[in-house]
Write a structure and sequence with these properties.
Length: 309
């Protein structure tokens, strides 16, 4: 089968589109005939070697996957050959940038039926990140106020939609380029951070500050004053700590997305009900994945890209 792998860490040139053996599922695993994998920024970091997730080389990237169950290992219940599924695969294991992929059965859920199976690969890790940040780590409740910094990205738009559905008041920062998409996602207030200081634009304290952007630590620390006493700061920027304010009982959490099939199934149901919109901006063939990594390394990727074998 065809796959993209890197045999050493480094620049995009270390990626190889090559023929490898078809994997066999072990106990508790299934094999998928891959419909698509999704490109994420962490794939770029793992390939470059600056994201400290231990992988065995050579490594197949692409931890978000959709596909059809092709073979089932011992002890697997709840799936049958031919089932359409999606999943967030263990990041340290081989991923979905291949014609076939191995997945733990407990990481998979039935795919949404309202969108093409390939496009469904865009959902798992980014939607789980948004959900876990808001509710598992941020404890957001109906009637509360949340400020989402860097809301114009894929995670941000999922976070807006989920927060609004939960009954929260959403304030979002966005550039003019992404303002329309942020508004369409449901933000109550939009701050153009290229023109207006966020601190000056927020008139009342927020219960939750969710940071999704690579902002300067000093700017991040300053934003904490917008959080009410006893509120929460949550950040997805794993390369830097999230500031808190112990004197005011403002706690902070850095999100590391976790596989959660139950929550993923809930997100799938929201896609099928129309409450959550999938975002896919580009679809590329597997052979072009090394070129996509080169684009990412140069900072030229926006939106969600899926990779089709």
């Amino acid at each position: 089968m065809k796959a993209v792998r890197f045999h050493e860490v480094g620049g995009p040139e270390v990626l190889r589109y090559e023929e490898i053996g078809q994997p066999t599922p072990a106990a508790g695993q299934v094999r998928l005939r891959v419909a698509a994998s999704a490109f994420n920024a962490a794939d770029n970091g793992m390939r470059a070697g600056f994201l400290p997730i231990p992988v065995v080389l050579p490594h197949v990237p692409g931890y978000d996957v959709s596909g059809v169950v092709d073979a089932i290992g011992e002890g697997v219940d709840g799936f049958a050959v031919g089932d359409a599924v999606i999943g967030f695969l263990p990041m340290a294991e081989d991923g979905g940038a291949a014609e076939y992929a191995i997945a733990p059965a407990d990481a998979l859920v039935a795919a949404p039926t309202s969108v093409p199976l390939a496009d469904a690969a865009a959902l798992p890790s980014v939607a789980l990140t948004a959900r876990q940040a808001l509710f598992d780590d941020g404890n957001l409740e109906a009637g509360q106020r949340v400020l989402i910094v860097g809301a114009g990205g894929v995670v941000g738009k999922y976070a807006i939609a989920l927060a609004k559905r939960a009954g929260a008041h959403v304030i979002a920062t966005a550039s003019p380029r992404s303002a329309d998409a942020v508004r369409a996602a449901g933000a109550d207030e939009i701050i153009d951070h290229t023109e207006t200081g966020v601190i000056d634009a927020v008139s009342e304290p927020v219960d939750l500050l969710l940071n999704l952007a690579p902002i300067e630590p000093s700017e991040f620390t300053a934003l904490v004053r917008l959080v009410r006493d006893g509120g929460t700061v949550v950040s997805t920027t794993a390369w830097m700590p999230a500031p808190d304010d112990a004197e005011r009982d403002v706690r902070s959490v850095v999100v590391f997305v976790r596989s959660d099939a139950e929550r993923l199934a809930e997100l799938v149901s929201l896609v099928d009900s129309g409450d959550l919109k999938l975002e896919v901006t580009r679809r590329i063939p597997l052979a072009e994945l090394p070129a996509l990594h080169a684009e990412a390394a140069a900072g030229r990727i926006s939106g969600k890209v899926i990779v089709i074998p």
